[in-house]
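Run log // design_07
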């Protein structure tokens, strides 16, 4: 594949096609107001991205229940009162020519009590002093994901992306380390996958025929088993339950170190699966046009841009005009971000990333 292939349209199973192979990753930025309401900083950030030439833009992790919050200033979609702000955001993305998706999120056992979160573990042994969710609680949260998708549709988004990564609630339920339940949501792989499948199937049933569904999956940490996740993913792809799989890798070059797939790249374990009409993309330190094009050779249909998009909001346009484009090297001074239009709230969040903002820069 060449860099020019990144600029070709990509059809999806439902709704309109992506105009190119660039998707903006869902990036936590801690810019929203209390109660999950989108701020002027959220809206300005999205307007910047909307003009950047992306095929599809995902919002940051947007909580489906107030108690599912993981960090301060996280956006919400758990109330109809959030819809006006979300409508403004969806309108901005559409005006820029890209598709839009709300990333639906619940922190599960990682919900942060310091910002109003209510830890909601699959197991009673995960969070000291906190009981496991009841079966009815799990079903309530499932329905909250579906209600969030309906609000996203009402707000004018093209779809949603279901956050099933990083030990958040759906990922947590998949883990035999974090899920020792004995009800229908625990035990066998089929039962531990049930929560995710019911969320995805519920959204598909509740929303319109052109509504798009993505699924973000990570395969490391939190006791997750690669072989199990591959088996579950194979079923989802075969049944065409989603439009795209967003494979969240810490590093695109990662090699499997043990088990049945030892010696393979993490990406190849999933890229080699038959996927019918479902599209596959990956994130993980994609900093150059050349590397993005290589991911297409490695089996991806699209690439997810994160850090490179923060540094240059119009990263796809940079690639369009320069096939040898490389993202600025990290770390960068805070003023570099400030001059580019990144808000002080977002910059403060990025300081916690360790390798992004030059220590001591103002």
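design_07 sequence
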């Amino acid at each position: 594949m060449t860099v020019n292939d990144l600029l070709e349209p990509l059809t999806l199973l439902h709704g309109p096609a992506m105009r190119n192979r660039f998707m903006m990753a869902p990036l936590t930025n801690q810019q929203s107001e209390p109660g999950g309401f989108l701020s002027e900083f959220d809206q300005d950030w999205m307007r910047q991205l909307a003009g950047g030439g992306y095929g599809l833009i995902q919002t940051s992790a947007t909580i489906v229940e107030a108690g599912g919050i993981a960090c301060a200033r996280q956006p919400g979609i758990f109330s109809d009162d959030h819809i006006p702000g979300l409508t403004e955001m969806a309108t901005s993305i559409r005006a820029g020519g890209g598709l839009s998706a709300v990333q639906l999120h619940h922190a599960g056992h990682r919900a942060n009590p310091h910002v109003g979160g209510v830890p909601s573990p699959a197991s009673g042994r995960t969070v000291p002093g906190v009981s496991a969710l009841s079966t009815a609680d799990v079903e309530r949260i499932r329905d909250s994901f579906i209600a969030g998708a309906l609000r996203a549709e009402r707000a004018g988004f093209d779809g949603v992306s279901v956050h099933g990564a990083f030990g958040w609630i759906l990922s947590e339920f998949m883990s035999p380390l974090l899920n020792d339940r004995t009800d229908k949501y625990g035990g066998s792989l089929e039962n531990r996958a049930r929560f995710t499948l019911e969320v995805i199937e519920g959204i598909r049933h509740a929303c319109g025929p052109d509504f798009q569904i993505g699924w973000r999956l990570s395969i490391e940490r939190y006791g997750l088993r690669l072989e199990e996740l591959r088996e579950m993913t194979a079923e989802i792809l075969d049944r065409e339950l989603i439009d795209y799989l967003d494979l969240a890798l810490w590093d695109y070059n990662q090699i499997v170190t043990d088990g049945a797939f030892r010696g393979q790249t993490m990406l190849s374990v999933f890229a080699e699966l038959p996927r019918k009409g479902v599209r596959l993309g990956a994130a993980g330190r994609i900093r150059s046009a050349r590397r993005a094009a290589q991911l297409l050779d490695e089996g991806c249909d699209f690439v997810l841009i994160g850090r490179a998009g923060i540094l240059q909001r119009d990263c796809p346009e940079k690639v369009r005009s320069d096939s040898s484009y490389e993202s600025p090297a990290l770390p960068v001074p805070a003023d570099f971000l400030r001059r580019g239009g990144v808000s002080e709230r977002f910059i403060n969040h990025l300081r916690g990333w360790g390798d992004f903002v030059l220590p001591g820069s103002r």
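The chain has two domains: 3-328, 330-362.
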